[in-house]
Specification:
alpha+beta; 8-stranded antiparallel sheet; globular
Length: 152
């Protein structure tokens, strides 16, 4: 099973489990390749972006591959690259394995619909114009506990 398929089914990606501390991720995967922000920390490992609360707990995982393959962390300075499955094949494999998928509009862009895997809470969609895949998981309970209510 591919890393992406396992993430869609479980909502976990190796050490990256909602609630894990930043230092534990760095201990397993090494320093991030880049930071989108340092306070709070949003960092990048290949095609994976991780968001941490002010207390250092993981609350957000996002995967946005930039082509026909996707890159994930495998260890300090190591990446695994796997082919990106076609969107219909991804949905079909989840459905065949008994995973219920619902569709929900994006809270800030109602015209954008995300598919949600019921058991894991992972949401994903394919951009209609460019065909690119976006996948994310937001543990809002962790975010609210550590950082207070979301603004917006």
């Amino acid at each position: 099973m591919s890393v992406l398929s396992r993430f869609l089914r479980t909502g976990t990606l190796g050490v990256a489990v909602p609630g894990v501390h930043y230092r534990d991720v760095v201990g397993q995967w090494g320093e991030p390749e880049a930071f989108a922000s340092r306070a709070p920390v949003y960092c990048l490992y290949g095609d994976l972006e991780l968001g941490f609360t002010k207390k250092g707990r993981l609350w957000y995982l996002q995967i946005e591959p930039g082509g026909t393959s996707v890159s994930f962390p495998a260890g300090p300075g190591e990446r695994v690259r796997e082919p990106l499955p076609a969107f219909p094949d991804l949905v079909a494999s989840l459905a065949e394995a008994g995973y219920r998928i619902t569709e929900e509009p994006h809270p800030y862009e109602p015209e954008v619909v995300w598919s949600r895997v019921e058991r894991s809470g992972v949401e994903f969609r394919q951009d209609a114009d460019q065909g690119s895949l976006s996948v994310h998981l937001a543990a809002m309970d962790i975010h609210r506990q550590d950082d207070g209510p979301a603004s917006g």
